[in-house]
Amino acid sequence: MASWVLAAMDLACQKAQRTLFEGVSFKVPAGSWLHIEGANGCGKTSLLRILCGLSPAARGQVVWSASPFEFPRSRAASPDRSVLHYIGHALGLKPDLNACENLCLDAQVSGLPLSREQALQVLAAQGLQSRAHLPVRVLSQGQRQGVALARLRTSPARLWVLDEPLVGLDAQATATARALLQSHVDAGGALVMTSHHDVRLQGPGARFDLGNRALAT
Questions:
Q1: Hey, how many other C-beta atoms are within 10 angstroms of the C-beta on 89?
Q2: What is the pLDDT of residue 74?
Q3: Which CATH number fits domain 1-83+160-167+186-217: 3.40.50.300, 3.90.370.10, 3.90.1640.10, 3.40.220.10?
């Protein structure tokens, strides 16, 4: 079995006949993190969606846990939540449901067991116990981000792919989120993320400058 959880090989992305990036290759071992950096518009979100199988690449290959797929391909695949958990900008929350209901519904759709009591516990761990029964539409951006991150606490996936996971969070919520990400890596999981914040994770990891296609540990 490979010692890495995710591998990208010679990925290229084109949008509206413009090449955003090409020749992107890296591996993310178990128990490590990869912070993808670069200027706005260089394709960071597009790269994450390609890694998850949600968007097509112009060419290249992605491997999750030794299961490869190559580009170009006719359609994107949905991520298997038992292998990979993705949180993008849209967060995927139902605005008229409360935070607790959102977690339970998300678990049900993903085929994961989650009781109402467990949902309340993970929301409390995110510091959102007082917001658990409010409709998501009345929550602040940071609180909605916290609800989305709470899903990770019950996720069985070894690979987390997160697009700007700290956006909108206050100082306390940021510290809570960093501790959550660190615990995942410390437990042998793998993390790929974009962030304009200095996430300051410890242990094995690297930064990948998408604009320059440079990998730095």
A1: 10
A2: 47
A3: 3.40.50.300
